[in-house]
Amino acid sequence: MKTRLLTFENTESQTLQARLATPDKQQPHSYAIFAHCFTCGKDLSAIRYISQALTAQGFAVLSFDFAGLGLSDGDFSETSFTSNISDLTSAAAYLSNHFAAPKLLVGHSLGGAAVLAAASEIPSVKAVATIGAPADPAHVTALFGSAIDEIEKKGKADVLLANRPFTIGKPLLDSLREGTQADKIHNLRAAKLILHSPQDETVSINSAAAIFDLAVHPKSFITLDGANHLLTKKEDAIYTGDVIASWAMRYIDSQDVSATASSLNTSSSVVAQLRSGDKYTTAIQARQHRIVADEPETLGGNDTGMTPYELISAGLSACTVITLQMYANKKSLPLDEVKVSIEHSKIKNAEMPSGFEDTFTRHIVLRGDLTAAQENKLLEIADKCPVHKTLHQPSQIVTILEK
């Protein structure tokens, strides 16, 4: 994906700092807004990984710092849950005026509660996803502990949150207490996806159950098993992003997707693009399908996708299972399932120009009531899959420099 920094004004004429992530090689078919967690900001690593997954599916993602946080204007002690909702509607208005009205809202923690509350005020929104969100915003007041009495008496108090000091004002305390939104959740007609970890120690998974019970269909729940509240493990953030991206595509107009996919400026069937600021994270598109390739962190990459050799192995394994299933269908063989795993290695071979020979070790598992003769025939057919043949025979690569 590629990113750019933007600013927009909220209803209080405060300037909010934002980042817009867009697909690398095409115009986005839809726009999304990401609302960060309480006291967090747009630079949280989980937002980056989730945005990568969404842009890989053709979304553009606007993330921003709520007023009083990050680089945005405002005094955090004077903000409230209500002002967060207002900031979200301001972000939606900015997208509508400068790009396109948002169709997807994603909210993390208190940001999840905020998108549930704001969605009904943004008519263009078709889908809302929450991550570790409280059903009742008042849940956040538990983080203030003994400082609540001081906030009540003096109007504000310093509170240590996530090992950082914040000045919490009475407007925030009052708005959280008054932020009951059972009716808003129940009346929200947009599609809803609720993601939550049973190991979340900040917001209990019971909140996810409460949101799910209040919501009307279409609604879905995904458990983020093993993840913590902030999704600090990269694999958890990537998984979360992949799930949201796949789910959200169901609620995007097919004509919007096809129109942007056809605008890809290339005559090639497969396109890969990499920008210097992305390390080795590479966007790949074939027709309307998009994936990401990368290198492990040990090799300087972000580890957000398969390596090039893993993609070759994926092509061989996919071609093998498809070929075997096609043959089984044609011959009416009782093949219930076929599984192929590939191991790639470089073996020393002095006869090769490079001194090494690429070796793909293919393991095949056949499930079904097959005879030994049928299994042997299927193994023979595996060697006839088109990708297998391509890897075995000489190939030409013609390189053309285009401008």
Can you walk through the features of this model?
The protein is an alpha/beta fold. It has three domains: 2-258, Alpha/Beta hydrolase fold, catalytic domain (Rossmann fold, 3-Layer(aba) Sandwich), CATH 3.40.50.1820; 266-299, no CATH class; 308-392, K homology (KH) domain (GMP Synthetase, Chain A, domain 3), CATH 3.30.300.20. The chain has twelve helices and 15 strands. β12 (282-286) and β13 (289-293) form a beta hairpin. α1 (45-56) packs parallel to α8 (234-249) and α10 (308-331) crosses α11. It is elongated and about 80 Å long. The model is unreliable at 257-265 (pLDDT under 50).
Largest sheet: 8 strands, mixed
Helical element count? 12
Which radius of gyration do the C-alpha atoms yield?
25 Å
- Proportion of strand residues: 15-25%
N- to C-terminal distance = 21 Å
Could you spell the SSE succession in H and E letters? EEEHEHEHEHEEHHEHEHHEEEHEEHH
The level of helicity is: 25-40%
Low-confidence stretches: 257-265
CATH-defined architecture of the largest domain: 3-Layer(aba) Sandwich
Task: Give a quick precis of the structure.
This protein has 403 residues and is of the alpha/beta class. Helices cover 34% and strands 25% of the residues.
Summarize the helices and strands and which ones pair or pack:
Elements: E1 2-9, E2 15-22, E3 30-35, H1 45-56, E4 59-64, H2 81-98, E5 104-108, H3 110-118, E6 127-131, H4 147-154, E7 156-161, E8 164-169, H5 170-177, H6 182-187, E9 191-196, H7 205-214, E10 219-223, H8 234-249, H9 254-261, E11 270-273, E12 282-286, E13 289-293, H10 308-331, E14 337-348, E15 356-367, H11 372-382, H12 386-392
Parallel strand pairs: 3-4, 3-5, 5-6, 6-9, 9-10
Antiparallel strand pairs: 1-2, 2-4, 7-8, 11-12, 12-13, 14-15
Helix pairs in contact: 1-8, 2-3, 10-11
